């Protein structure tokens, strides 16, 4: 692994060295390091590029690291990762993707297609960070597709973060929830320059007492554009909530497009969206505490995306 | 220490919100500003802290003309201002805000001290976000705590009593008095609270954008206290104008 890859690895997953337990590190479209653990098995797919991550039932408090790195330009990576989470397992998955194009004018692309199959009463925390680096004009593109199937009583929490650096991203997440399944998605996004980001969610609550909570916080600076589309279908007694909170700066543009459908009298669905520039009184307050305008702005943004 | 000369504040429709205000506040004083709603008290506080620029007049602070200084520059020179309506922030915690006010990274214990001062149980609040989850009274106390933490030459509190229960408020008065013990720092409290007017060195009454009376409590208090609504009360108006 070269220095660029090592640096990306650190930023994406916080790792300085190979972790304990199960991991798979992908660099420029190939698995470069892999380890399974007693409870978590990682195997290559036979028909296409990617891996299956199989977690035994009742596995408790284990981590799996699956960072994907693109450390040079001109790469068009496409990967299929499937997660099979056994009943009652409770694990954390640290994923993420770093794309570095150096000073090249060739772009690079990483498209990850992730599918999660959560067994009954299993619990997954999925943490994903997107990083883009490079000084050239080469475009860095990350288009993740995520599909989540949750059995009865399972819980999934997805935390996704993308702060600057990625020129274009189209994220598409779908989920199907059975009885008592719970899905929480927290998305943090900052775009700048001429970047474009789209995040689209489609959640079907099919099981009684299932719930989804979708929280998006984002900042659009310069000439960047963002679109959020949240489609939530309540097909039975269930609770759905989505919240899109965006700060626009400079010439940033944000659209929030909710589509909530109650197909049952017992479905409770809420969508909240707030888009606007930093509130003037917030700036004033921090300046009366001695911060300059720039410092106040940075504090507000940091807190907002924290 | 602070001197306002011929300060006026006029808004577009030619409404004069402050009318030729002259005011000097000496070092180490505890001043209460009172008067009916809409009298211009909050506007005066905003003008002093730099949130608003006067349309006419001059402000000096320790001999320096600060009329054209920014909010930040005034804050750095030692002016603090606790808002009547505190501001909320998503994602910024109580601890963060106290650090910002203090200008250094305080330990949880040191930051908690300022919360205890305003009657909040520190461990319940120190990590809370300053968002809509806090009640009016809670956010108000935190606002006061940030001004206390700054401990500057001039501290202005705009109606600190709002939303705070009586027991805590009595404790708060002790805190103001403690701040006042330093002969260096001055405190200006905009308030309708009798207890505050009681302990102030001097009271300033503002009606319709002008200072109508200034003096020790013995002279101002009796007149003001016997009326709920001095602005619309002819009797009060006469007394105040006199
Ligand atoms: N920016 C403004 N534009 C127009 N009117 C204002 C503005 N700021 C304050 N006012 C008006 O000025 C008057 C004084 O307000 P304020 O200073 O808040 O009074 P107080 O704090 O004494 O209750 C009120 O009538 C208020 O509505
Ligand atoms: Mg007021």
General description of the model:
Chain A has 2 domains: 157 residues, no CATH class; 113 residues, no CATH class. In chain A, strands 1, 2, 5, 6, 8, 10, 13, 15, 17, 19 and 21 form an 11-stranded mixed sheet that branches. Chain A is mostly beta strands and 306 residues long. Chain A is 10% helix and 57% strand. In chain A, a hairpin with a 2-residue loop joins β1 and β2. The model of chain A has no long low-confidence stretch (mean pLDDT 94). In chain A, α2 packs across α3. Chain B is of the alpha/beta class and 242 residues long. Chain B has a domain of 153 residues: P-loop containing nucleotide triphosphate hydrolases (Rossmann fold, 3-Layer(aba) Sandwich). Chain B has 10 helices and 10 strands. In chain B, the strands form 2 sheets. Chain B has a 6-stranded mixed sheet with strand order 6-7-8-3-9-10, sandwiched between helices. In chain B, α3 packs parallel to α6. Chains A and B meet through α2 and α3 of A and α2, β6 and α3 of B. The structure holds adenosine-5'-diphosphate and magnesium ion. Adenosine-5'-diphosphate binds next to α1 of chain B. Chain A: InterPro entries: Fe-S_cluster_assembly_SufBD, SUF_FeS_clus_asmbl_SufBD_core, SUF_FeS_clus_asmbl_SufBD_sf. Chain A: This is ABC transporter permease. Chain A: Belongs to the iron-sulfur cluster assembly SufBD family.
